[in-house]
Amino acid sequence: MNGLRSEALSSSHDREGFSCGVAALDNYLQRQASQDMRRHVAAVFVMVSEDQPQTILGYYTLASYAVETSGLPDEAVKKLPRYPTTPATLIGRLARAVDQPGFGSLLLADALGRILSNTREVASALVVVDAKDDAAAAFYHKHGFIPFGGTARKLFLPMKTIAGAAQRRAR
Ligand SMILES: CC(C)(COP(=O)(O)OP(=O)(O)OC[C@H]1O[C@@H](n2cnc3c(N)ncnc32)[C@H](O)[C@@H]1OP(=O)(O)O)[C@@H](O)C(=O)NCCC(=O)NCCS
Fold first, then answer.
1. Separation of CA 107 and ligand 1 centre (Å)
2. Whose alpha carbon is nearest atom 35 of ligand 1?
3. Total domains present in the chain
4. Model's pTM, two decimal places?
5. For residue 87, what are the domain limits?
6. Burial letters 29-67, b for 16+ CB under 10 A, else e
């Protein structure tokens, strides 16, 4: 990601100037995100360019999560130990600025990379997303996420898949 970096949201970032076209996601960044960080209910990361580090190009939130193992598809369950719950990381929100088409994939790749490195410290076997609508679900589906829990809006990706892709890229 030449000239780009992701970092924790801070007061140096121009939150008011961010618009992804979905009011609820803009409002979250402007009004709620800092408080969620202070209360440790979400870690909020923004993507910025090196030459305009105050301008938010996109953001995502991460939080610990637990999934009822029995609610996952059989194929996934077979590869997991028989614990009633499986540790996961939730991408609660992810949005890119309206003038940054194509940036969603970059944000998602950054989030997955961060989650993968974090799992060495706090284990997480799945990444879960809560898609806010069918278009968002299609975006995640396109990136290999699998629906579960009887709804097309909740999707997961096994950490093994993410680690495998990272290893292939490193070769
Ligand atoms: C959802 C979002 C992050 C996608 O970002 P993006 O930059 O448009 O996505 P990309 O161009 O990187 O998309 C990659 C693939 O996902 C699919 N995709 C993206 N948006 C889609 C949509 N609305 N409907 C169907 N498929 C979609 C495309 O097929 C695309 O593949 P392609 O390159 O072959 O066309 C972006 O539209 C956004 O920020 N929306 C507002 C916030 C939001 O809805 N967030 C969802 C999480 S709650």
1. 11
2. 102
3. 1
4. 0.94
5. 4-170
6. beebbeebbeeeebbbbbbbeeeeeeebbbbbbbbebeb
